[in-house]
Design goal:
With 172 residues, the chain is α+β, with helices and mostly antiparallel strands. The protein has one domain (3-170): Immunoglobulin-like. 18% of the residues lie in helices and 37% in strands. The protein has helices spanning 3-23, 40-43, 160-165; strands spanning 28-34, 51-52, 60-69, 74-77, 81-86, 93-100, 114-117, 121-131, 135-136, 145-150, 167-170. The chain has a seven-stranded antiparallel sheet. A two-stranded antiparallel sheet has the order 2-9. Strand 5 and strand 6 (93-100) form a beta hairpin.
Length: 172
């Protein structure tokens, strides 16, 4: 066998091994965790006005994703969430804005895009409840859950299957 041909086969074998390894989950872990609950005062302010005022800053963390990588650098696509306040007694819903990592923007991160994770690195992405709508006080709606729905879901007409798949965070 020709010496150059031997080294060509070795190089092809290495390329195949690296390609297969990059497509596998070797050394790559993802942990997702919603918060156990969120307080009513984090969702609505306690000021006495005609409306229950919405919060307008990212002060309520609702979900965390931790991505760790020990092998080949890669990108992890982040889930896109739609927030929805939900009253389990009446079935009424109201849109609530969810945003990711607005308090700690960093290089290599794009809102609801992906996060780049280098060799031996761990990246943490936090999702926050950014704002909730104004709701007239005369509306006797007692929202008891914050739902994190798939971005394709419609907060105004949640299907039973979407409700089953939603991440439910109690509002206490």
């Amino acid at each position: 066998m020709n010496k150059n041909l031997f080294w060509a086969y070795i190089c092809l074998a290495l390329i195949a091994i690296i390609t297969l390894a990059s497509g596998s989950n070797i050394g790559f872990t993802v942990e997702s965790k919603p918060v156990d609950s969120i307080s009513k005062t984090s969702v609505f302010s306690t000021t006495e006005t005609q409306f229950r005022e919405p919060i307008m800053s990212p002060q309520s963390e609702v979900y965390t994703i931790t991505v760790s990588n020990k092998f080949i650098p890669r990108s992890y696509p982040l889930p896109e969430f739609q927030g929805c306040l939900y009253d389990s007694k009446t079935g009424k819903t109201q849109y609530a804005e969810i945003d990711a990592d607005v308090s700690e923007p960093r290089e290599g991160f794009s809102r609801f895009g992906s996060v780049e994770v280098g060799i031996g690195k761990t990246e943490q992405v936090k999702y926050f409840l950014v704002s909730t709508p104004k709701i007239p006080e005369q509306e006797k709606v007692d929202f008891d859950h914050l739902l994190l729905l798939d971005q394709e879901a419609d907060c105004w007409s949640i299907l039973p299957s979407e409700l089953d798949e939603a991440i439910k965070i109690p509002i206490i």
